[in-house]
Amino acid sequence: MLLTVFAYISDSTPLLLVFTALEIISVAVMKQKADALTAAAPDQGNPPDLWFGISEDALQNWLDGIGEGGRPLYLASNAWDLTVYMWAYMLLSGALLYGQCLKANPKLTPLSLIFAFAMMGDFIETILLRKATNAFPTPLAPMLLKLMSLANMAKWSIFVVGLVPLIGLAVKNRMSKNDESITETAKTK
Fold it and tell me: Are the CB atoms for 155 and 50 separated by under 8 Å?
């Protein structure tokens, strides 16, 4: 089902443009929300979504540091992440990788599902960060904290691993296209 969606998007220039615009808008909104949080709690650094691994102490200190005014701002960012941001990056990245796999070797197209796995990690992490923020100052159960940290690390690791074939195949496909173009030019002379 998801491969069909990726194929449909990757085969449509207007849809690729729509999803690219959606991702750009989504990133801009996330940046605006992060800036509002930074203004409210300037010394607290990045939110835990941007960390690689999350410990109980670091999370509790961060939630305490952003204070009563910062937690609702973080929850607003968290809601945008759940409703728009992660869907936009998953669909765009998956469709782009699907298209590159299709050009290089159609048997590789299932590889585009890697971005759905990154999104699953992001989803678990985001839901548990929301729960931790709403429950503050009570910490999450250790098992949930460990799950959140693993989901966070999986999200980042899988996303980066997905970028490798996307970039590699894009370069390979571009070079192949240039080679074909040079061969065609040589034949016509």
Answer: no
Give the whole-angstrom CA distance, residue 21 versus residue 78: 21
As a residue count, the chain comes to 189
User: Rounded CA gap, 112 and 90, in Å?
Assistant: 10
Q: Is the dihedral of CA 181, 185, 186, 188 positive or negative?
A: positive
Cα–Cα distances in angstroms (integers) from residue 72 to residues 79, 91, 109, 189, in the given order: 10, 28, 40, 68
Tell me the pLDDT tens digit for each residue of 124-180. Answer: 999 999 999 999 999 999 999 999 999 999 999 999 999 999 999 999 999 987 655
Instruction: Report residue 181's pLDDT band, with 50, 70 and 90 as the boundaries.
Output: low
Q: For 67-117, how does the pLDDT look when each residue is reduced to its tens digit (9 = 90+)?
A: 999 999 999 999 999 989 999 999 999 999 999 999 999 999 999 999 999
> CB-based contacts of 77: which residues, under 8 Å, 6+ apart?
30, 33, 34, 37, 47
Handedness of CA 124, 168, 6, 107 (dihedral sign): negative
Q: Answer for the pair 88, 30: CB distance below 8 angstroms, yes or no.
A: no
